[in-house]
Amino acid sequence: MAVIEVNNINKSFGDTQAVQDVSFEVPKGRIFGLLGPNGAGKTTAIRIINHILIADSGSVTINGIEVSSETQNMIGYMPEERGLYKKMKVGEQLIYLAQLKGLSHAQAKETTKYWLDRFNATDWYNKEIGELSKGMSQKIQFIATIAHDPDLYIFDEPFSGLDPINSEMLKEIVIELRDEGKTVLFSTHRMEQVEQMCDEICLFNNGKAVLKGNLRDIKQKFGKNTVEIEFEGDHNFLDKLKNVRINNRSTGFAEIRVLDGQDMQNILKTAISHAEVYKFERVEPSLTEIFISTVGEDNVNPNELA
Ligand SMILES: Nc1ncnc2c1ncn2[C@@H]1O[C@H](COP(=O)(O)OP(=O)(O)OP(=O)(O)O)[C@@H](O)[C@H]1O
Questions:
Q1: Is the domain of 111 the same as that of 192?
Q2: Atom of ligand 1 nearest to the CA of 47
Q3: ipTM of the complex
């Protein structure tokens, strides 16, 4: 049985249909990524799973139980809007929140100290939350979510506001939780985080689940129709290529999706005639490419997909 089962849920706010007939399953012991641009419906779906919002129709179960205040206690949930008491001290607050989740004072203190240490934040124990930067208070919120050691975690945009070092630290901890057998669902619009972490994904666009399943299977299904090229010299040849789509493009690098009728050898010939090519490799498409192929270029604001 899947840990979370979402069956044909719908949710509207006035004329906006935020979630439309969405279904997906989150298997036990996996990291599941809810992915999609701003406004795609991820937070609405997460709030329904956490019983903060009620779906207009459809159903959601956690470990086979229809969502309710009872299932809320099974989840370590980090909402998008972070809610910590600004005047309270970090240590005091983490201990208080862990006790609310059922830990004894001694257990709460022990786990608080352990996690502050893991996040290199032991010195913050006596600081007020209001004194912390956005990224720092985000880490405290994360600790508050995981400290009572539930089996299921739901994080809404956990990486927003974190610098690369702290993102990496968080990523390692999420993977560690999965390796301990916990189930993790998180939302993001950052494709590379999903590529690096997720076992399963569900892609949202305009309130609909447009692609879902095991990430490896999805990538294999899309085939190795993509070329990664590294070169030195004039990059203008990239604009001359026909029947391709260039997704990631930076100085001396491009990811080129080969569309119907284009031959990879032609791309290589064109590249060599304009630049010094160091690497030309056929690869599986990136998630950005998969997303664009699935929803169509017209439906994507590239600035919303990192
Ligand atoms: N309480 C609300 N009242 C009215 N409209 C809402 C409400 N919550 C969400 N919406 C609308 O529903 C749609 C989906 O929003 P949602 O927050 O679920 O998207 P999201 O994928 O989480 O986006 P983001 O990545 O920006 O957080 C948007 O059009 C949003 O404006």
A1: yes
A2: 18
A3: 0.96
